[in-house]
Amino acid sequence: MEYRKTHVPGFTIGTAEDREGLTGVTVILAPKDGASAGVDVRGCAPGTRETDLLSPEKTVQKIHAVVLSGGSAFGLEADSGVMNYLAKQGAGFPVGDITVPIVCGAVLFDLSIGSSHAHPDIQMGYLAASKASDTFPVGCYGAGTGASVGKLRGFAHAMKSGAGYAEFGLPGGLYVGAYMAVNACGEIYEGDHILAGALSDDDSHFISSHELMMKGFQRHMGTNTSIGCVMTNARLTKAECKAVSGMAHDGYARAIRPVHTTMDGDTVFTMASGEVEAPVDTVGYLAEEAIRLAILDAVRSAESMGGRPAFSDRLKKLSEK
To answer: Which residue from 182, 226, 250, 279 has the highest number of Cβ atoms inside 10 Å of its Cβ?
Structure first.
């Protein structure tokens, strides 16, 4: 198990998972007073919760958590567990003798691996929120538990993926971090090298996504989606958070191909705690790079599960030759 640590002030991350059913949930908690937030959805098959209220013209100005879940649409149930946890902590907008936390979320499709009946529920969401800290596992944990990539030839030729994290801190005190659960239809690449993607019939080599796209392929609708969250201590408005989310999607394109297909529901949230003045373009650029590195981290930290090999397996085989 590999761990990462976030240094973005005020934000914590928690995970819970079913390692037999191969599904899980990741919760990114904002500071108790909430954070400005925005979202950008590029894929054509998204599954989301409370994204409309993130539009700049909507009344709510702050949210208290972002939930990233496996389980396809079933996984949205986990968000209610996070709400219950936050309400018990007194986080949210006061309404009489209770508080109402604002929890946004997105799901990915992992029903093709493990048990198709396993999905994050209220209890799993509550548990993940209760475990949130500045240190958390990556790879096949949380929303990355059932994630896979390289499905242009179908799941039988896919590779195991997971969740990853990357961040940047500048001398002036600005921090930008990104958490990604990578469940892409396409392959993951760095420079001229494919790290994980569609495998040949004997799993011995990659079939490039470019080659597959040029020849045509069977469409596997809705079995993918990479979802993530950018967190920063910059002072941003809701509109600026949305702009940062849009720039962050360029990190997808620099690590996944093809990207934002009709078979993906790619979604990026941005939460900003408002502690440090920083140019929006600087935050956006750091978010783009953090997303790219988090995607690579997700693949490199994954392990073989559900009958599908991971990057680490191929790396081991190459080292043995």
So the answer is: 226
Residue with tokens 């921090």: 175
CA distance 302 to 306: 12
pLDDT digits (tens, 9 = 90+) for 188-247: 999 999 999 999 998 889 999 888 888 876 655 557 889 999 999 999 999 999 999 999
Domain range list for the chain: 2-320
C-alpha angle 290-294-297 in degrees, rounded to nearest 5: 140
Q: Three-state DSSP class for 235?
A: coil
> Which among 294, 295, 181 has a CA at the least distance from the CA of 227?
181
Q: Model-level pTM greater than 0.90?
A: yes
What CATH superfamily is the domain 2-320? Answer: L-amino peptidase D-ALA esterase/amidase (3.60.70.12)
List the end-to-end C-alpha distance of the chain, in Å, as a whole number: 26
| Contact residues for 55 (Cβ-Cβ < 8 A; gap 6+) | 238, 242
Q: How confident is the model at residue 321 (pLDDT cuts 50, 70, 90)?
A: very low
pLDDT in tens, 287-314: 999 999 999 999 999 999 999 999 988 7
Structure tokens belonging to residue 153: 């030839």
The Cα 169–Cα 306 span in angstroms is 37
Name the residue type at position 291.
I
Share of the chain above pLDDT 90, in %: 84
**Integer CA distances (angstroms), 49 to 66, 73, 258, 274, 292, in order:** 10, 10, 25, 24, 24
> Hey, is 288 helix, strand or coil?
helix
In the block, tokens 């600026």 appear at: 240
